[in-house]
C-alpha cells in the first residue's frame, strides 16, 4: 500500500463524528478508516451499486479479514491484495448477489483464506460460485483478533441469506445491502421479502450501534436515524399502494406501478415493479390485498 494511502488515516471515533462524506469514495483506492479498518471501493458504479461495491479490510498486525470481495475481475483482485496490510485469513460475504461475492473464489485461490457466509437456495440473481467452508448462524461470534469480534446478525429481506456483521468492540455494523448510504435497496421477490426486510430493520433498532459501514456509500454515523428513515420510507410507500388499490378497479402491475411510483422516472419503473410486487405480497399475507388472474385489488383486512 502506498505511503500516500496510509497517510490518509483517521481514528474511527473522529470519522464517525464527522459527516459521512468527509472520507470520499475513490474507486480501487484504499481509504484508511481506522488503525484496523480500510475501505476499498470496486470500480463498478451504477444504478444498482451507487458509487460501487465496498470491500472492507478488517484486522490487526498480520491477520486480516475481507468483507465482501466484490463482483470479481482482475483489477479488484489486485487492488485487494495490494491493500491488505497483512495476510488475508478470512473472506466474509454479506450475501451472494453478483456485486458482492463472486470475487471470493479468485481471492481464496490466491490466499487460501477461509470462506464464510451463507449460500442461497435460489438461483436467479445469485452467485453459484460461492461455496463457503462455514455457514454461520445468527448470533455466532467470529474472533478475528485480540480486540476484534464480529457478531453475525441474520437480516433477511433484500436476500434470504443476507448477513450483517457487528464489530462489537466499536459497535460498528457492516450492513452489506441491508442499509446503504443515500438510497434504498431493491426488494425483489421471491428471494426478496418486504415483510422480512422491515422486520430485520426493526431488529437493528434494538442493537446498540455507533456507526454503519454500508456495502455502497460512505460511513453512516447516525445508525438509528438511518434505520428509522428507511422504515418510514417503506411504510409510506405501502400506504400509497393501499390507497391506489382502494381507489382502483383490479389492476395489473404495469398499471399500478405508474400510479404508486409516479415520483420515480419511468425508465426505472421496471425495477420499481419488483418492489411493488414485494409490497403487494406483504399486504396479501396480511389480508390487505389479493390477486386474481394477474390483477390486484384491496383485501378486506385481517380476520
Work out the radius of gyration. Answer: 20 Å
So, CATH architecture of the largest domain? Answer: 4-Layer Sandwich
Helical proportion, percent range: 25-40%
Total number of domains: 2
CATH topology of the largest domain: Metallo-beta-lactamase, Chain A
**Broad structural category:** alpha+beta
β-strand amount:
15-25%
- Spans of at least 5 consecutive residues whose pLDDT stays below 50 are 1-21
CATH superfamily of the largest domain: Ribonuclease Z/Hydroxyacylglutathione hydrolase-like
How far apart lie the N and C ends? 62 Å
Number of strands: 13
Contiguous helical run count? 8
Q: What kind of sheet is the major sheet?
A: 6 strands, mixed
Mean pLDDT: 91
Specify the CATH class of the largest domain. Alpha Beta
Note the run of SSEs as H and E.
HHEEEEHEHEEEEEHEHHHEE
Per the principal axes of the C-alpha atoms, what is the gross shape?
Answer: elongated
Give a short synopsis of this structure.
The protein is of the alpha+beta class and 303 residues long. It is built from 8 helices and 13 strands.
Walkthrough of the structure:
This protein is α+β, with helices and mostly antiparallel strands and 303 residues long. Helix content is 29%, strand content 21%. The protein contains eight helices and 13 strands. β3 and β4 form a beta hairpin. α5 packs antiparallel against α6, α6 packs across α8 and α7 crosses α8. The longest helix has 24 residues. The N terminus is likely disordered.
Amino acid at each position: 500500500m502506498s505511503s500516500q494511502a496510509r497517510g490518509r488515516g483517521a481514528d474511527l471515533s473522529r470519522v464517525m463524528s464527522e459527516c459521512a462524506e468527509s472520507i470520499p469514495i475513490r474507486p480501487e483506492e484504499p481509504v484508511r478508516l481506522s488503525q484496523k479498518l480500510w475501505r476499498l471501493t470496486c470500480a463498478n458504479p451504477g444504478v444498482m451499486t451507487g458509487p460501487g461495491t465496498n470491500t472492507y479490510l478488517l484486522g490487526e498486525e498480520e491477520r486480516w479479514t475481507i468483507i465482501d470481495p466484490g463482483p470479481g475481475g482482475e483489477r479488484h483482485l489486485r487492488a485487494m491484495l495490494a491493500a491488505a496490510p497483512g495476510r488475508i485469513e478470512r473472506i466474509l460475504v454479506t450475501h451472494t448477489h453478483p456485486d458482492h461475492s463472486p470475487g471470493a473464489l479468485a481471492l481464496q485461490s490466491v490466499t487460501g483464506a477461509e470462506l464464510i457466509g451463507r449460500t442461497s437456495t435460489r438461483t436467479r440473481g445469485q452467485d453459484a460460485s460461492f461455496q463457503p467452508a462455514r455457514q454461520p448462524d445468527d448470533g455466532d461470534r467470529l474472533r478475528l483478533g485480540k480486540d476484534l469480534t464480529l457478531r453475525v446478525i441474520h437480516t433477511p429481506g433484500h436476500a434470504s441469506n443476507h448477513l450483517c456483521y457487528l464489530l462489537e468492540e466499536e459497535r460498528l455494523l457492516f450492513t452489506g445491502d441491508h442499509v446503504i448510504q443515500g438510497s434504498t435497496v431493491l426488494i425483489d421477490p421471491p428471494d426478496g421479502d418486504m415483510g422480512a426486510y422491515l422486520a430485520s430493520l426493526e431488529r437493528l433498532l434494538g442493537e446498540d450501534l455507533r456507526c454503519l459501514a454500508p456495502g455502497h456509500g460512505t460511513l453512516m454515523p447516525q445508525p438509528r436515524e438511518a434505520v428509522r428513515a428507511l422504515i418510514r420510507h417503506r411504510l409510506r410507500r405501502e400506504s400509497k399502494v393501499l390507497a391506489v388499490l382502494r381507489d382502483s378497479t383490479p389492476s395489473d402491475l404495469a398499471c399500478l406501478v405508474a400510479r404508486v411510483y409516479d415520483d420515480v422516472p419511468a425508465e426505472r419503473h421496471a425495477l420499481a415493479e419488483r418492489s411493488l410486487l414485494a409490497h403487494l405480497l406483504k399486504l396479501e399475507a396480511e389480508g390487505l390485498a389479493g390477486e386474481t388472474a394477474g390483477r390486484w385489488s384491496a383485501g378486506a383486512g385481517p380476520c
